[in-house]
Amino acid sequence: MTYPPCHTPKAQQWPRELRLGTGGKLLKVAFESGRSFDLPAEYLRVMSPSAEVQGHVPQERKTLGGKRNVAVTQVEPVGSYAVRLSFDDLHTTGIYTWDYLYELGARQTEKWSQYLAELKAKSLNRDRPGEK
Questions:
Q1: Are 65 and 119 in contact (CB under 8 A)?
Q2: CB distance 126 to 119 below 8 Å
Q3: Does the pTM exceed 0.85?
Q4: Which residue from 62, 65, 110, 131 has the highest number of Cβ atoms inside 10 Å of its Cβ?
């Protein structure tokens, strides 16, 4: 997908291109700023901005295990500010704003390390489904 430079006042980052790769296992996002990121589907799924994952307050956030092999099946524009990602585990409620996709890319190492630590602390792993 290529997006025209249509901007809303609140967003700071604007995508130039979003492209699914590796059979839906990778979302490549290029921003107008020149930065680009390869975001694994597993990472996008466990960091979904949906209330189902994030809850309504930080204490409700869920740590999802068993998502190593998840894939993105659809990328659907939401207005001019975001995309809805659908996953092959039937999760479809995450709306990823441009700024959130940029944050996921820019802070990928930090966020992924935190996620792995949460899995370990909750006796979950990337291959076994479960949530705590």
A1: yes
A2: yes
A3: yes
A4: 65
Q: What is the pLDDT of residues 36-62, one digit of tens each?
A: 999 999 999 999 999 999 998 888 999
36, β-bridge pairs: 30
CA-to-CA dists, residue 127 to 22, 67, 81, 100, 107, angstroms: 19, 6, 33, 26, 23
CA distance 122 to 132: 7
- Domains of the chain, earliest start first: 15-123 (3.30.2020.30)
Rounded Cα distance, 86 and 106, in Å: 22
In this structure, are residues 81 and 53 in contact, taking their beta carbons and an 8 Å threshold?
Answer: no
**Residues facing residue 75 across a β-bridge:** 85
Q: From CA 64, how far away is CA 60, in angstroms rounded? A: 12
For the residues 73-80, what does the mean pLDDT come to? 96
